[in-house]
Write a structure and sequence with these properties.
36% of the residues are buried. The chain has one domain. It is mainly beta. The protein contains two helices and eleven strands, in the order H-H-E-E-E-E-E-E-E-E-E-E-E. The protein starts with a helix and ends with a strand.
Length: 169
């Protein structure tokens, strides 16, 4: 649990850096997402992502934690785990666990540059670039990334994200 507390402290410290460095996102994709008055909510198209609570890790598990870059303040919108290989999101007040159905690209701490998560009603494609320079112990920062999905009308939704991978030894 000590490593997880360290990871959470590092994550909070990194969130300011992540929000400030929204390079890689087009102004159209940044404008597409908007934060609403309620704290911890991100509305994109007709989807509403609610902030996830802190996500504990079990021993030997690595987690990918992504914050929306387009919100007025960072909103933890996705947590994915190396074991079991699933992602957790909170949509319209309801937590959903999505299993990983595809992974490709370079791996970092049990996660890949492109991962697809689905529960047969919702599919999220997560594209990230890992910073493996060694600035973090037992993890890696996410230099830039996107979550892609489609809304009920079939429109593609792109959410610019930043975050990190952290592991519980």
């Amino acid at each position: 649990m000590v490593a997880m507390n360290w990871a959470l402290r590092a994550l909070v410290s990194l969130s300011a850096l992540v929000v400030a460095s929204s390079c890689g996102a087009t102004s159209a994709s940044r404008d597409q997402a908007r934060a609403v008055a309620a704290v911890g909510v991100l509305e994109v198209g007709n989807l509403r992502f609610d902030a996830l609570a802190p996500q504990p890790l079990s021993s030997g598990v690595c987690g990918l934690f992504l914050w929306a870059r387009s919100a007025q303040e960072p909103v933890l919108v996705l947590a994915a785990f190396s074991d079991p290989t699933e992602a957790r999101v909170r949509l319209r007040g309801r937590e959903r666990n999505l299993r990983r159905t595809a992974a490709e690209g370079e791996a970092s701490f049990g996660h890949f540059e492109r991962q697809t998560y689905s529960d047969d009603r919702l599919t999220l494609v997560v594209d990230v670039v890992f910073d493996t320079s060694g600035r973090l112990r037992d993890g890696a920062a996410i230099e830039r990334g996107f979550i892609r999905t489609r809304d009920r009308g079939g429109e593609e939704i792109v959410i610019p994200v930043g975050g990190m991978v952290a592991c519980e030894p």
